[in-house]
Specification:
Elements (H helix, E strand, L loop, with lengths): L4 E5 L20 E2 L2 E2 H11 L4 E6 L5 H5 L4 H10 L2 H13 L1 E6 L6 H6 L2 H4 L4 E4 L3 E4 L4 H12 L3 E6 L10 E4 L8 E8 L10 E9 L2 H7 L11 H11 L3 E4 L3 E4 L3 H13 L5 H12 L1
Parallel strand pairs: 1-4, 1-6, 4-5, 8-12
Antiparallel strand pairs: 2-3, 6-11, 7-13, 8-11, 9-10, 10-12
Length: 288
């Protein structure tokens, strides 16, 4: 399960962020001063993945531009002596090799991943959803790659959610005996909004998958919401090969959701020494 490539689906319509997402991809909305997609590419890069393929759609071309080298801007910053910003801009545009494929119709996450088939070929690969932020000392996808390599198995990221939030997520039914600390055999996966969820272990947007998933996706019929669901293909894969769920170390923010986006901005903002005192003062004032 050696992983060298990652698929980053960013073709979704982002309806929760309308009207803003009508003209700017939600994956480009900034968390403080970097687009969400910057943190996600950085996570893959820190885990040793150098080849990224973005699954894009019409109107999302700026995502590729973001990772391109902008000679004019670099020259401008150099002349101005703004070396810190120059370093930042240079770093991300040179760190990763960016490719893109188009998902011509938004037929769901499973379909988006299938669109990257030719780029991935026959290798196991990582998937990082373009609007799911994981804040961790050790990159979440790197933690998962270690588990996949150790157990030679597909891995999905999981985290515990409070009872009242369970209905928002796909949920894992784990074997009661863990394989190891934080590692569970997946018995079943159930879709969002199930009345009787088997646990509070929710599936989030990080996966290590074998190329076999493409064959399965080819024949996966539209499911919930009329979309080709990755979860349906994972359920079929789990019949052939034991899938593992891994409770990653770190915090997760859903930047594709308005509350999650504001939450991430606040938390990442509070980490900036130049912003922290003013933000804390503002919060205190608002609480009075
Ligand atoms: P979401 O579930 O957040 O869907 O997709 P969405 O359509 O983008 O947003 P809402 O629900 O309408 O607000 C999770 C990830 O999968 C990608 C999205 O871009 C996002 O990064 N995605 C989703 C695709 O690439 N293609 C699809 O057909 C659906």
């Amino acid at each position: 399960m050696k992983v060298t490539k990652a698929v980053i689906p960013v073709a979704g319509l982002g309806t929760r962020f309308l009207p803003a997402s009508k003209v700017v991809a939600k994956e480009l909305f900034p968390i403080v001063d970097r687009p969400t997609i910057h943190y996600i590419a950085e996570e893959a890069w820190r885990a040793g993945i150098r080849q990224l393929v973005f699954v894009t759609a019409s109107g999302k071309g700026a995502i590729e531009d973001y990772f391109d080298i902008d000679n004019g801007l670099e020259l401008f910053l150099e002349k101005k002596g703004d070396l810190e910003r120059l370093r930042m801009i240079r770093e991300i545009s040179r760190a990763v090799e960016v490719h893109s494929v188009r998902q011509k119709q938004q037929l769901g996450l499973g379909h988006a991943i299938l669109s990257a088939r030719n780029f991935i070929g026959d290798e196991p690969f990582a998937v990082l959803l373009g609007d799911d932020l994981v804040d961790a000392k050790k990159p979440c996808i790197g933690q998962m790659m270690q588990v996949a390599e150790k157990y030679k198995a597909p891995v999905i990221a999981a985290f515990r959610v409070p009872e009242d939030k369970i209905e928002r997520y796909g949920i894992i039914d784990p074997d009661p005996r863990p394989v190891a600390k934080r590692v569970w055999n997946v018995r079943r996966m159930v879709e969002k909004k199930r009345i009787d969820p088997p646990s509070n272990l929710a599936i989030i947007g990080r996966y290590i998958l074998p190329a076999r998933i493409f064959d399965i996706l080819e024949s996966t019929q539209p499911g919930v919401g009329g979309e080709i669901q990755l979860t349906d293909a994972l359920i079929a894969l789990n019949q052939e090969h034991q899938i593992l769920a891994y409770e990653f170390e770190g915090d997760r923010y859903d930047a594709g959701d308005i509350f999650g986006f504001i939450q991430a901005n606040l938390i990442y903002g509070l980490r900036r020494p130049e912003l922290k005192p003013r933000l804390l003062a503002l919060l205190k004032q608002l609480c009075e």
